[in-house]
Amino acid sequence: MSLTRRDVLKSVPGLVVGFGLSMPGVATAARFVADMAETTRTDQLRAGGVDAWLAIDAAGRVTIYSGKVELGTGVATALRQLAAGGLDVAFADTRLLQADTALTPDLGYTAGSKTLQSGGTQLAHAARLARAALIERAAARLGVAADTLTSANGHVVGHAASSAQRLSYAALIADGIDRPLAAELPAFAPAVHRGPVGQSIAREDIPAKIAGRFTYMQDLVVPGMWHGRVIRPPTTGAFSPDAARLIAIDASDLPEAAQVVRVGRFVGVVAPDEWQAMQAAERLRLAWDTTMTVPAGDALFPHLETLPATRDVIRDTGPAALGSDAHTATYHWPFQSHDSIGPSAAIADVSPDGVHIWSGTQGVYPLRAALVELLGRDDIRVSYVEASGCYGHNGADDAAADAALLSRAVGRPVRVQWSRADEHGWAPLGCAMRMRLGATLGNDGAITAWQFDNRTPTHLNRPAKQLGAASLLAGQLARDLVPDTRHVGGDRNTISGYDLKAEHIVVNWLANRDMPLRASALRTLGAIQNTFANESFMDELAHAAGRDPLAFRLAHLHEPRARRVLETVAHAAGWQAGESAPGTWQDDGARGRGMAQLTYENNAARVAAVVAVVVGTHGIRVTHAWVAHDCGPVVNPDGLRNQIEGNVIQAINRTLNEAITFDPYGITSLEWSAYPLADFAALPEIDITLIDRPDQPILGAGEATSAAIPAAIANAVHAACGLRLRTVPFKRGALMTARREHSA
Amino acid sequence: MTYRLIVNDTAHDIDAPGDMPLLYALRNHLDLKATRYGCGLAECGACAVFVGRDVRQSCVLPLAAVDGPVTTVEGLAPGDALSPVQQAFIDEQAAQCGYCISGMMIAATALLADTPDPDDAAIAAALTSNLCGCGTHVRIVRAIKRAARMQRQARNAT
Ligand code: FES
Ligand code: FES
C-alpha cells in the first residue's frame, strides 16, 4: 500500500510508450530510456494528451500504468490481454498498475463501460509501437532490414522459418539508450486479434478472492488507525439542507475511549476499536429540527411534474405537437439503489505532513480535487483500493470524505465503514424519471412522426473540482451545500436509433436543488429508463399497426450492426412471427416473450434481447433470456459473458423488484427485506450470442445489456396476458392492480 | 471478558465484550478478513461461517454465544490448498467483484456435506440467506454443481 513511483518504475533502463487512454490518436514515440522512473514524472506524463504509459523493463516485464481502476469486471485482465497481444509477449509477463494519484496519470473516471472503449484500442496501438521499436533496434543490432524480422513471444526473430536470428526483448532493452530510436514511427492500425486477445483468459484477481486472501477496501488496515462512524440526520437521504437542523448533541452516554466530531450538520464518532465506534454511534443522542422536504412515496411522479425544468431539444425534425390520432404512452422509473453487498468504506490519514486517502472511488483525481476544496489543502494523495462491486457513483467517495473530516479532527488515521442503513439511505441513487412518448402511424403501418419528452435530474453528481465539497455528502452536511451540476445522462438513448423521418425529442432537466433525494450515476445512466420507454413504445406501435414486433422494428431499423444483433437474437430464440399477440390472463401462469434492442449511447455496443416470462397471481417470473451482443472485437469471451450475465440478472431485478421507498421524512427502504435483491429461487436460463468484429474499434460492454432488458420484459408480459406495464418496478401488487383495472 | 475461540483449528483468547458479534473478533482481532460485513442484520450471508457443522451469520452471533469451533474461508482447506468448492468457483470464474463469494462458498460447503448431488431447488434453498449484488448467480450455481461432481468423483475414486 505504500508503493512509491520509484518502487514500481525503478531507475532501470526500459522501453516506454506514452499514449492517450482517454484521447484517441495520441501516442508518443516509443523511447528507450536509461531511467524509467525519471521518465514517468507527472509533468511528462501529461504532455500532449498522454495519460497512460506502457513500459517494458530490462527483464522483459510489461507494465501498464493507468488511472483506470478495476471494478470487479475483469477489465484489468482484458487490458493486459491487449498489451500482451500487441507486443507479442506472454500474458503472464504483463501487469497493470491501478489508480493512485501519486503513481498513475489522471484519467478521470472508470465510468460505465468506457474503459475498454476509450482505452483498449489506444493501448493496442501503443503496444504495436513498442513492438516496432524493438524490431527496429534488433535490425540495427543484426545489420539486417527491419522487414526481415518479426516477433515471437517476447523475442525478435527472423521471418524465415530457418532463421537463427533471435533476440529477446529483455536483451534489446538492457542495452540502454543508444539513440532516440523510433521517434518517427508511424502509428499502427490496431491488430488486436493476436496472442491472448480473443481468448478466455482466467481473471487474475479471482484465485485470491476465492482463497480469502484478497484485500478489499473494506478489509484494508492502516497502522494506527481508529474506527469512525457518521451519524446523519433522521431525514434519510433528503437532499435539501433545510430538511434537518442540528439542535443539540448529548454525548454523556459514550464509551470512554470514543470521541465526537462535529462540523456543521456532519457528526461522527471515532474510537480505537470498531465495535466501540459502533456502540458510540448508537449511544450518541442528537436532537434535530426537521422539515418535510420529500414528497410521500406515491406522490413522487406528480411531484416531478410540478418542478421547474430546463428544456433541451435533442432532435427537432418533426412536429412538436401531434394530432388526435396519435398513439401516446407515459412511462415511469423509480429511484433505485446501487446495492453493493459491501457498504462503502474508506480510510483517511490527515496529518501535518500530508493527507493520504484510500478509497474504492471510480476516479482518484476528481475525488482528490473535491477533497482539496473540502480540506483546504492540496498535499493530498488518493489511492484506489478495489471495493465491493461498483455499478456507478456509490458511497465510496462520500466515505472517503467522512474519513477525512474525522481523521483531521482526531489527528490519526481513521477508517469509516458505512452501515447497511447508511448505504441504502445515503449513497447516491439511480434517477427517477418520467418518459412520455407519442407517434403517428401511416396507412402502411409505418411511423410517420415520433415524439419523446422526459423529465430527469442530472445523472452525474460525482466529485469534481468545480463542485468541490458540494459533491461530497460530508461537504453537503458540513456546509449546507447542494451541488450545481452539469446536465448529464438523462439524454442517453433518448434517440431511439430507428430511421424516423420526423422526430421531436426533448429532455427536461430538473435541478438538484429541487430534487427530494440525491441521485447520480447508476449503471447505464438514463439509457435504461429511456430505452425502457422507447422499446416498450415500439412494441405498442407494432401492435397498433398490426405488425409483428420483430418485423416492425426491422422495417424501421437500417443500421447494419443493429439489424444483425436483432436478427441474431430472434434466430437464437426461435422467434415466430405473430407469437407476441397479446394472450389472456391465467391465474396459474400465462407465458409470453418480448424483445428489445438498442445501440448503447447511439454509437457503441449493439444489444438485442428476447425474454420469456410466466405471469400469474404469483407475479412475474423471467424464465429465459437470450442476448445478442456486438461490442466490436471480443477481447475475453468468458469475461464478456460474465458481464452480460450480471447485467441480465441485475436488470431483471431492477425491472421487477427495485424501488427506493420513502415518506416525507426520507428513505424508508434501509435494508434488503424492504429492497430485495435477486435471489436464487427463480434464475432464468441465459443464452448469449457474441458477435465478434475483429476489424472494428473496441466498444464498451460493461452495461449496455442492462438497458435492453426492462422493455423486453414489459413486452413479454403484454404478450403473455395482454397487460401493458409502464411503471417500474413490476411488483406483484402493481401487476394485480393492472389486472383489476384492465378487467374493470 | 476473555473468550476462548477455536478458529480454523487454532485456539485464540479474545479480549472483548461478550455482546460483540463474532464477525468483529474474526476480522479485527484475528485479522481473518475473508468473512465480510454486508448488513449486520442476518440478511446477506457475506459474514457466514461454520460454527461446528452449522452455518451461522457471524454478524449477529455474539461472541459469548459461540458454542463450537469456527471455520472460515481461510480454513476450508489446509495451508495453500483449495477445497473442491473453492476450486470449482475458480474453474467457473464464479465471481464478479467477489465480495459475496466467501459466504456463498460456506453455504455451498454446508450443502454438499449433506447433499452430494443437489438440484437447482436444493441449491436455491441453501442460498436463501446469501445475496449477490453483481448478478453472478448463474455462475455460482454452476460452480456448486461442478464442486458436487468433483466431490462425488473424489469419493468414488477412494
Ligand atoms: S453481514 Fe451478516 S448476514 Fe449480512
Ligand atoms: S460477485 Fe459481487 S456481490 Fe457477488
Strand order of the largest sheet of chain B: 4-3-5
The largest sheet of chain B is:
3 strands, antiparallel
Count of extended strands of chain B: 5
Query: Roughly what is the average pLDDT of chain B, rounded to an integer?
Result: 97
| Spans of at least 5 consecutive residues with low confidence of chain B | none
Description:
The complex is a heterodimer of chains A (744) and B (158). With 744 residues, chain A is of the alpha+beta class. Among the domains of chain A are: 5-197, Aldehyde oxidase/xanthine dehydrogenase, molybdopterin binding domain (Aldehyde Oxidoreductase, domain 4, 2-Layer Sandwich); 523-743, Aldehyde Oxidoreductase, domain 4 (2-Layer Sandwich), CATH 3.30.365.10. Chain A is built from 19 helices and 28 strands. Chain A has a 7-stranded mixed sheet with strand order 11-12-9-19-16-17-18, sandwiched between helices. A 5-stranded mixed sheet of chain A has the order 2-1-3-4-5. A 5-stranded mixed sheet of chain A has the order 14-22-21-20-15, sandwiched between helices. Chain A is globular. Chain A starts with a helix and ends with a helix. By secondary structure, chain B is an alpha+beta fold. In chain B, strand 3 (48-51) and strand 4 form a beta hairpin. The mean pLDDT of chain B is 97. The chains are: A alpha+beta (744), B alpha+beta (158). The complex binds FE2/S2 (inorganic) cluster (2 copies). One FE2/S2 (inorganic) cluster binds at residues 37-40, 42-47, 57, 59 of chain B. Chain B: It comes from Salinisphaera japonica YTM-1. Chain B: This is Isoquinoline 1-oxidoreductase subunit alpha.
Give structural attributes:
A: 744 residues; alpha+beta; Aldehyde Oxidoreductase, domain 4; seven-stranded mixed beta sheet; 19 helices; B: alpha+beta; DNA polymerase, domain 1; three-stranded antiparallel beta sheet; 5 helices; 14% strand; binds FE2/S2 (inorganic) cluster; OxRdtase_Mopterin-bd_su_IorB (chain A); AldOxase/xan_DH_Mopterin-bd_sf (chain A); Isoquinoline 1-oxidoreductase subunit beta (chain A); TAT_signal (chain A)
